[in-house]
Amino acid sequence: MAYKLLKNEGTARRGEFETVHGTVQTPAFMNVGTAAAIKGGISSYDLVDLKCQVELCNTYHLHLRPGDDLIYDMGGLHKFMGWKGPILTDSGGFQVFSLAKLRTIKEEGVYFSSHIDGKKIFMGPEQSMQIQSNLASTIAMAFDECIENPATREYTVSSIARTTRWLVRCKREMQRLNSLESTINRNQLLFGINQGSTFHDLRIQHMIDIAELDLDGYAIGGLAVGDTAEEMYGVIEAIEPYMPKNKIRYLMGVGTPVNIIEAVHRGVDLFDCVMPSRNARHGHLFTWSGIRNLINEKYARDDAPLDEQCDCPCCRNHSRAYLRHLFKANEMLAMRLAVQHNLYFYNTLMEKIRAALDDGTFEQFRAQMVPILGKRI
Amino acid sequence: MAYKLLKNEGTARRGEFETVHGTVQTPAFMNVGTAAAIKGGISSYDLVDLKCQVELCNTYHLHLRPGDDLIYDMGGLHKFMGWKGPILTDSGGFQVFSLAKLRTIKEEGVYFSSHIDGKKIFMGPEQSMQIQSNLASTIAMAFDECIENPATREYTVSSIARTTRWLVRCKREMQRLNSLESTINRNQLLFGINQGSTFHDLRIQHMIDIAELDLDGYAIGGLAVGDTAEEMYGVIEAIEPYMPKNKIRYLMGVGTPVNIIEAVHRGVDLFDCVMPSRNARHGHLFTWSGIRNLINEKYARDDAPLDEQCDCPCCRNHSRAYLRHLFKANEMLAMRLAVQHNLYFYNTLMEKIRAALDDGTFEQFRAQMVPILGKRI
Question: Where does this protein hold substrate (chains A, B) (predicted)?
Fold first, then answer.
């Protein structure tokens, strides 16, 4: 179980990440199935056709509903939702800090109320590891505090110190859980998360501290939460030299196609974001010529496929006019076709990035694509 | 283009109905794609896998949104929604009477306000034929008044007399439209609709009157709109001897699996109903052992497929526990999987009915299935 760096182009990396549920070709984009399903009526079986390599599920949501004990009883997430490839679960931390009500952070963990029914819940590093072990994901994320930007230096210093202490507890608890006979996936991997807001020196010191724990991968958290794209790129550039070369690197919750290309350029291997599915549900579709708002009147009688250069299930079979009609008529099929397209687009983007890295033409690809992909057409 | 009676078992009929868009094996159930899409995120391409033979679309809904002129410009419904098989369009009459506001019925047609934006619209026999010709469906339905039950004898007498006069106008207008070079489907078929509330003598006289017009098929309308199942069966039995033997017979808007078996027994060939998709969206699933309410707590940890005897995409891949979770978490995937299952169930029911008729064992099938299929389990 390890990351293998196949090739560099500048700081950009072409690699492979081996897991018990299959090998991931990197750079890769994880498709977000929050509550054990992709929003928009996409099943795990559809995901295979959409060239998805890794599905991401949310610990917080699944803990509340249907409960990780139920998923454990059903044999774990893979069996429950019918996905055979790698699954990454987040730690629950991000949702505890963004969704839950009445939260109190203490050294032992976080006390909060469920956003569904107000039920009082405690989650600390050990609980997060136990839940993720019950879910039996391929990769578990460490329980951290995701600091919103901007943040004060003082708060950031104390927060990341606690996040490091929590990480030590996460590692210890996962080792214990992976040693139990009753654990479904005893090869569960643990990724640590770098925090530190936009303070480069704090980010670097935190990265050095967590690298010492020799985890299975390292994530950059706390970006794309109030900061600008330039601040984000700056943080990645600052910490990259301190990230272990032989470990996979995951930029959490990012981002647009351009953000992804720019982050690959700066040495990132793994991504996740709700953007492709969320934007799709509002009629915003990514294409190889730029971003289309399909609700626009000009598509009402447009017989062309959404993207002539795409061979996703939507573009192979349906016209812009039909898809627009489905959106206007509030048909669920609009959501499904649009989400299929956007996920296929993101997964194909990663395929093209990998091919360019293989060919040593990634910088050319970046120069060509960045001006196009962010453009509204 | 004709109905061919292959075999009788009592009054029940096994037949074939030839159209320019393919031959329909009857008895058959039409799958309802109201606004040119099946509710629940099912595309025309999915319908093929669900063993659908005929898709039904709604004239009223499509006239309002996106407009039949737009669908005409896009080459007709087949091309617009990507369905290659036969399509039946209703006349719009039923929705004008049930959905539209401020309606006034006159000899020339109906004045009403759109239920979407209040826009004033007029629809008479000629307009309905023109809209359906623009949609370019395989089969157009005559514009009639669907009388709600119970109705007075006096109102029924005057209403069906007008419906007959409207039918003559529908036939004349369709002949004109089918003769135009600019018409997309110049082989469009026209079905007349029998009305007469629950008055057997009025139903019979109306059937005799409309049979004289020698149309491509005959529908029984105005049932399952306030009447009991026994009243419905009584009406079918009364008029069946007066329905042309060499024409296809369609019972509109019916019904449960048991209703369908009982109507086939009484000589009906064609059905449509929103029940399989609507019930699916509320977690009510038809199975070969009876009707399951999947929201029930007892399915929370049930690892079995929804129906062990079913090989639909839902039952092949997913457990009751997973499907229930998707419903509880309000995931769109719940709708899609459940609608897929229920449509597959209905289409398979028709397949079994046809096989039993082929084997001369339909009455045995009916005796065995009727007590099971209506049962809640």
Answer: 90-94, 144, 195, 222
- ipTM metric: 0.96
Q: What is the pLDDT of residue A27?
A: 98
Average pLDDT over residues A73-82: 98
DSSP letter string, A60-112: HHHHHTT-HHHHHHTT-HHHHHT--S-EEE--SHHHHHHT-EEEEE-SS-EEE
What was the pLDDT predicted at B83?
A: 98
A57 in a known ligand binding site: no
- For chain B, the structural domain boundaries read 3-273, 280-373
From the list A90, A227, A269, A307, the catalytic residue is: A90
End-to-end CA distance of chain A: 43
Closest by CA position to B62, among listed B52, B47, B53, B72: B72
| CATH value of B3-273 in 3.40.50.2300, 1.10.10.10, 3.20.20.105, 3.40.50.300 | 3.20.20.105
**In B, which residues are within 8 Å of A76 by CB distance?**
none
- B35 touches A at CB < 8 Å: yes
Average pLDDT, chain A: 96
What pLDDT is stored for residue A1 in this prediction?
55
Q: Residue B220's pLDDT band (boundaries 50, 70, 90)?
A: very high
Question: Is A90 annotated in the active site?
Answer: yes
CB contact under 8 A, B325 and A66: yes
What does pLDDT average to over chain B? 96
Q: Tell me the CB-side half-sphere exposure of residue A159, using CA atoms within 13 A.
A: 25
Helix, strand, coil proportions of chain B in percent (round to 5)? 45, 20, 35
- Asked if A364 contacts A263 with a C-beta cutoff of 8 angstroms, the reply is no
